[in-house]
Design goal:
The structure is a homodimer of 628-residue chains. With 628 residues, the first copy, chain A, is an alpha+beta fold. Chain A has helices at residues 14-27, 34-44, 61-79, 83-88, 103-113, 132-166, 169-180, 311-347, 370-402, 406-441, 453-459, 470-481, 488-504, 511-538, 540-544, 547-576, 580-600, 604-613, 617-620, and strands at residues 3-4, 92-94, 97-99, 184-189, 205-208, 214-224, 233-241, 252-258, 260-262, 268-270, 273-279, 289-294, 301-305. Among the domains of chain A are: 19-174, Acyl-CoA dehydrogenase/oxidase, N-terminal domain (Butyryl-Coa Dehydrogenase, subunit A, domain 1, Orthogonal Bundle); 186-309, Butyryl-CoA Dehydrogenase, subunit A, domain 2 (Beta Barrel); 469-617. The longest helix of chain A is centred in the middle third of the chain and has 37 residues, at 311-347.
Chain lengths: 628, 628
């Protein structure tokens, strides 16, 4: 309870506080739109078409619906009820071990035994061979209900997949089954106190021994779920340097470093990994972020994954998955915040129509004020645009996996490479603005702990930071992905947009948006070519100086594409006729599409102007000029 | 300490944590730039010129310097050290009274006895007759050190000024001296559970009696410093309705409602005002925000201020001051956040120049990366732009006060009316983005309690909400101020801009910015005229639908003007020669001016495009379309 002093039924303000309680219990009913999920999976991205591929042939819509239903049940019954409680009771470091909320143990078991961690794994590796599209929508559902709880199985899935992809059969057998079962936690252990964004500078060492293992020494920091008592063991997928290897990123290797190793009798024993600190954070408090110290007793053992010095390349698989995961988490929080503010806006009465000045008329629900509708449409445009982009990305993952043609596989891989920094950053950055607008919608109540908005506001601020800051993503997009393989991913991306435009041309209602998107594509090409010429003529520093702005510019156009793609499905439904009750859904989506094109896409005007200038302002600015 | 588990010198990670401690103690040294304050007061706004007016004739630069020095001392020694501590130990409601941090009692005494609450009051009312320009810069200093502590004397000043302006001699004598002395707290009590932004709907009643007082009944909510044990009494300046008056805002009267009233023996006695709840807030935790219940025992007495039914007009004096105060507070927090992230960027080493890929070279301070400089310049452009605008506003307050010509008085009043919603909203909205970028600058550390950024991020979110939300400010600007008195304030505003442009024309370096500002003025005129014609042809709802965007659009141009005005002073200093050590200050400011014109002003491109469309999207959107 955020207001203290008068518990319900104890004082005369009871009815006021009771309203908050009622509102809270009502609000619990909605943190995501199942209708929009079905729209994306079935109407926009046609998940059923995947079942024509051999790998997915056992599945059908009925299976997908059952999985979604079960994910919603888990989210509603187990995750959402813990959302506030876990924030109010964050993990603590007690005698060298992180104590998390007692429910985490049950949840990890549920995620493991329920097959959620292994959902996309193949049958022979104890998985269910579910499409990524579906699995990631389930992640969206879980994260919308409670992002912190979702981080534990999410990281475990990524770590297990990394061992599956590059580890030996031995490593797989020892670790993966326990991880998929939710008994052992997986982590990604990259960051060090002196090496955050700059992985070239990690100093953790791995000394070869006569055994099958290396001796690991040094510290890691900011490790999510890096230690806790909700599992029997924690398996770190850790970057370290084997002495004598090349300097920088070329000398990084990947190791499995368990918190407890299996001894000769088959029991777990101490592996000299110590949790040396836990961070007190702004939000995302349900999941511990910790510091680790390895090898204080010179007995921390790590097992090499794949070949020496290729660790960063391997780790990029987990990093890229985690980046999409962060985008999904950010989208999920913004989604939950949107429905919380929507519910408030429908029920809170305040003021009158601007055309009705008569103060004796009753106040109207604030959702009827144009400015409140603008706030809600902004949130919805961001949320449903981001959901669409992320589903698009997981569709590429699926197609990459099942395509028989090697050229197709490569195509989807390149598209995914290009879109990963956008799928990570757009929801992260816009999620903050969207949640902040959601909070604004509640006025003073949004600032108070009585409503969940203040927690979403704190929680969502992590996303532009973890798994590579927005600045890093900008450099990745412009400095690496756009110019990859002679610009192939960029050309493929434009093909995708043109293909959507072709499909949209069937619908006269979409004509104006096609025109806008075509203009945006021209701007995107012009800016990109200009920047590449700068790179050739004036060097890399000027080329990348405004990479963060380029990322924003590119992202807006990407989301505009996704909205046009949704527009095709909307128009199809509206023209082919919808059930009466459903028409409002499509009309609302059409307004949201229009909103994106009228309020968001025009931002490329100023961004492209700035990007074309490329005057080196920030390069020239001297450190000394920041004095005073 | 934000990371727990290892206290300094207790474990082997001591040196890492010690670094944080060192950083913290170092950082405490700077939350504001005294250099920039002197630049604004002496070089841009020529505060010394005020001393030619009779009212300020006793003062001179030496006095101003002494006041500034004393304000800095208070801020550094008393306020800043409590910044984090008060956040970690928020007020609580204990047996019907709010317990605040014990330092509040000492601070209120300090603010009272030190003459800070009465600084701008005339000599005959126990004040110091200091210019508002100076007093508000002192407020900036205090709020940058610790916004929460500053709220107590700030509200008390506003409430005392309200009684001084419209209350009887009796009311003045009973209340004002104790308030100015910091013994009694002042508040503004407007909001009610069912009447937040819509004051027309307040239901608090004031029944006339046979005595000199009215009987007050009902509840108020979200009252800052509405009750606490750091003072002997709390004086509410409260809006209520006298039964039988006109409906809506025309029936609102203003009352002084003390927590404790003076009885016939001259002692304080219970006045039937009960603190019924305290809010648990996202931030701004050093100051309690409470619910009040009046008249539960039918014995809450209130004394009418001025005439019946004119309460809202009176209250607007305090509201407008409070709105400027909010803008100042938002600017102050963004300022402190800027210096905290600047300090971090100077000392944190990470990565190399993009042109230096050799991983054996040592890492460089992150301030040398172009993207980090962009973040810092963004913060600085917002912070110093907003500081300038607020000083401009207080200059208008001073000139309004001392001008002998009634036409001049009116001119400054109209300019102030026009700029108040901008001075409130621009720092509030941009402060959030600016603090958020400051947090981003620290990466993972920004998200943790080891550094102050996470607190600034929580604290600053209040500003777009309290004293009228940004949505309300937009409607105030476009729906009221711009069209006031046949557009007089708008015309006067444009004159001010043209006057600055004339002064800037002396300096060739400013030519490009003059051109940009001239273009921006044309856009502002075009958009404004277009919207007014919409209002006449299509009605008020469409006219005001995008008022929030208009506010943003107008604000950016206003800050661009302030940067050009600063540019005049910068160029003057650079040309006339500066002390060697000072040249970096002016060069840095010149870069920041350039940054504003290259990265911020261009945002008017998309805003003006959208505002010219005025297609009624948000008006047409139906509530039912938000279903699903």
């Amino acid at each position: 309870m955020g207001v203290s002093g008068q518990a319900p039924n104890q004082g005369k303000e009871a009815s006021f506080f009771e309203n908050i309680y009622l509102w809270k219990s009502r609000m619990a009913a909605k943190f995501i739109s199942e209708r929009n999920i079905r729209f994306l999976l079935y109407e926009v991205f046609d998940i059923e078409s995947l079942t024509k591929y051999d790998y997915y042939k056992d599945h059908n819509r009925k299976v997908f619906d059952m999985v979604l239903k079960e994910a919603m049940r888990l989210a509603k019954d187990l995750l959402y009820p813990l959302f506030e409680e876990m924030d109010r009771n964050p993990p603590g470091l007690v005698q060298g071990e992180v104590k998390v909320h007692p429910s985490i143990r049950d949840l990890m078991k549920e995620f493991g035994e329920g097959g959620w961690i292994s959902a996309t794994f193949p049958y022979e590796h104890e998985g269910e061979q579910l499409p990524h599209m579906l699995a990631e929508i389930c992640e969206l559902i879980f994260a919308a209900a409670n992002y912190s709880t979702h981080a534990y199985p999410g990281l475990t899935h990524g770590a297990a997949h990394l061992i599956e992809s590059f580890g030996s059969q031995d490593l797989f057998e020892i670790y993966v089954p326990n991880m998929l079962a939710g008994k052992w936690q997986g982590t990604m252990a990259l960051t060090e106190p002196e090496a955050g964004s700059s992985l070239a500078d990690i100093v953790t060492t791995a000394e070869p021994t006569n055994g099958d293992y290396y001796l690991i020494k040094e510290q890691k920091t900011f490790i999510s779920a890096g230690d806790h008592d909700g599992v029997e063991n924690v398996i770190h997928l850790m970057l370290a340097k084997i002495p004598g290897g090349p300097p920088g990123v070329k000398g990084i290797s990947l190791f499995v470093v368990p918190k407890k190793r299996i001894n000769q009798t088959g029991n777990l024993e101490f592996n000299d990994v110590i949790c040396s600190g836990i961070y007190h954070k702004l939000g995302y408090r349900g999941c511990p972020i910790v510091q680790l110290s390895m090898g204080d007793k010179k007995d921390c053992r790590g097992w090499l994954v794949g070949e020496p010095h290729r660790g960063l390349a391997y780790m990029f698989q987990m990093m890229n998955e985690a980046r999409i995961g962060v985008g999904m988490g950010a989208t999920a929080m913004a989604t939950a915040a949107y429905y919380a503010s929507l519910e408030y806006a429908k029920t809170r009465h305040q003021g009158r129509k601007l055309t009705d000045k008569d103060p004796t008329l009753p106040p109207i629900p604030i959702i009827q004020h144009a400015d409140v509708k603008r706030i809600l449409l902004f949130q919805r445009a961001v949320v449903e645009g981001a959901q669409s982009l992320l589903t698009q990305c997981s569709r590429y993952v699926d197609l990459m996996k099942v395509s028989n043609d090697i050229k197709d596989k490569k195509k989807y891989n390149l598209l995914l490479e290009l879109l990963t920094p956008i799928a990570k950053s757009y929801p992260s950055e816009m999620g903050i603005l969207s949640v902040s607008q959601g909070l604004q919608c509640l006025g003073g109540s949004g600032y108070c702990a009585d409503y969940p908005l203040e927690q979403y506001y704190r929680d969502c601020r992590i996303h532009p930071i973890h798994e590579g800051t927005t600045g890093i993503q900008g450099i990745d997009l412009l400095g690496r992905k756009v110019i990859l393989e002679d610009g192939q991913p960029f050309a493929l991306f434009l093909d995708e947009l043109r293909h959507t435009i072709e499909r949209a041309e069937r619908y006269p209602e979409l004509k104006i948006y096609i025109d806008e998107l075509n203009k945006a594509i021209k701007r995107l090409q012009a800016v990109t070519h200009h920047l590449i010429s700068i790179s050739q003529q004036k060097g890399i520093e000027l080329f990348l100086a405004d990479a963060t702005l380029y990322l924003e510019f590119f992202s807006i156009i990407t989301i505009a594409w996704q909205w046009l793609l949704q527009g095709v499905a909307i128009q199809k439904a509206l023209i082919e006729g919808t059930r009466t009750g459903d028409r409002n859904f499509y009309e609302g989506k059409m307004f949201t599409l229009r909103f994106f094109y009228r309020y968001e896409l025009p931002k490329i005007l100023w961004l492209s102007q700035r990007l074309m200038e490329c005057d080196g302002l920030t390069v020239e600015m001297k450190t000394d000029y920041f004095k005073d």
